[in-house]
Design goal:
Elements lengths: L1 E4 L2 E4 L4 E8 L8 E7 L5 E7 L7 E2 L5 E2 L1 E7 L1 H10 L4 H8 L5
Antiparallel strand pairs: 1-2, 3-4, 4-5, 5-8, 6-7
Amino acid sequence: MKRVINGKVYDTKTAEVIHSISDGYAGDFRAYAETLYRTKKGAWFLRGEGGPMTRWATGHSDGSLSGGEGVVPMTDHEALQWCERAEIDADAAYELFGLEEA
């Protein structure tokens, strides 16, 4: 998937996959799948898809919702927060974000 957002191109084919998560099953309105990516220039973005009761839902003119998909650019801080919620391996987070020990 390739999207242009705020004059920048976010392309899942050329970016590095960092981590993926999913929850739910086919037909579940709360099911979703998300993948965190990093571009060659170091920009973070999230690619996701999900049912009508997820952040990826698509609204329609009649007020109804259906499943959808999208790309969301992220700051370093937002990417780190996503990794924490996704319970990414601590060693991987250390490498990706240069974290320091508490």
